[in-house]
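Weekly sync, protein design subgroup
Attendees: M.S., D.O., the rotation student, P.L. (late)

Item 1: inverse folding check
M.S. brought a backbone from last month's batch and wanted to see whether the design step gives back something sensible before we order anything. D.O. pointed out we never logged the input encoding, so this time it goes straight into the notes. Structure tokens as presented (180 positions):
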């Protein structure tokens, strides 16, 4: 039995089985190099460009079409010129608001990151900066979700149903107040 112990240790080490005290891989390895630790470069670009960032999934997946996708499929949806103009205005307003608020959100996250990096974070500043960041992210969601509501109100039931089909949401057609 005395010789079994060294053999077991060699087998464990050779197999790469973690042992107590061995370095563990972390899902966060490499993220410390980010400009803003909590946001990927793709997240930063998305918020800065007013992208949807999945903020309107509650609307999109419950049968409320989004203005960008409706405009992309305007022909297939049979949108009238009036609908196109109105939905384009909704999109333009949503997009400009989302860019402005998205950039404010990035700044709040940058401030939070900077306070931690400089070791200047306090319980008070933590509550203030996180509160501001979350308030801004909430505003972004409202901006995107409201655009879905406004867009849906301009479409008839058949257009909403066709949108659902085009987007691959079979069986998701519901009556959400679309009219015409």
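Designed sequence read out in the meeting:
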């Amino acid at each position: 039995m005395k010789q079994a112990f060294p053999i077991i240790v060699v087998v464990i080490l050779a197999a790469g089985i973690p042992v107590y005290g061995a370095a563990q891989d972390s899902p966060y390895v490499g993220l410390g190099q980010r400009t803003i630790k909590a946001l990927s470069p793709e997240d930063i670009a998305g918020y800065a460009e007013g992208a949807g960032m999945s903020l309107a999934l509650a609307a999109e997946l419950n049968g409320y079409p989004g203005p960008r996708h409706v405009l992309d499929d305007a022909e297939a949806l049979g949108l009238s010129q009036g609908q196109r103009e109105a939905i384009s205005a909704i999109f333009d307003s949503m997009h400009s608001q989302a860019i402005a608020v998205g950039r404010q959100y990035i700044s709040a996250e940058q401030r939070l990151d900077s306070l931690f990096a400089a070791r200047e974070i306090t319980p008070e500043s933590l509550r203030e900066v996180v509160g501001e960041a979350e308030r801004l992210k909430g505003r972004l969601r409202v901006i995107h979700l409201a655009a879905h509501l406004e867009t849906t109100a301009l479409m008839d039931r058949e257009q909403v149903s066709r949108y659902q089909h085009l987007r691959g949401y079979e069986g998701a057609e519901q009556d959400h107040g679309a009219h015409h």
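Discussion: Residues 81-117 form the longest helix (37 residues). Residues 147 and 157 are 18 Å apart (CA to CA).
Action: P.L. to compare against the previous round before Friday.
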